Amino acid sequence: xxxxxxxxxxxxxxxxxxxxxxxxxxxxxxxxxxxxxxxxxxxxxxxxxxxxxxxxxxxxxxxxxxxxxxxxxxxxxxxxxxxxxxxxxxxxxxxxxxxxxxxxxxxxxxxxxxxxxxxxxxxxxxxxxxxxxxxxxxxxx
Length: 141
Description:
Distance between the termini: 64 Å
Transmembrane segments: 12-33, 83-101
Keywords: Cell membrane, Ion channel, Ion transport, Membrane, Transmembrane, Transmembrane helix, Transport
Membrane topology: Multi-pass membrane protein
Subunit structure: Homopentamer.
Protein name: Large-conductance mechanosensitive channel
Radius of gyration: 33 Å
């Protein structure tokens, strides 16, 4: 029974819930960025480069062939076009995260830079009483 309670305490802790939400939102955001790169950014770039589809860019090391049993063996290739798309994906995600962190930090700085209220004024009677107290301590002490 103790293990279940400990797990429940762990699972409903604020940080774990926040992390779970962040992971879910990050996964959805990653899909959006991938679609942006694959469907919006790369096609015009490919068109500018002469109608190139980046997914098709590869260096074939060994062509596909049929083995003696008649089964097709896939080609061996370095698919650098896919790699380029993933680099663009990563760059856009990293840029978005950087901008969010930068925004959060600027909001924190504004909060920290808020003017502090002036110190309370001390009236003259309190100052005189403190001086009298200090003098009495010196005489008795």
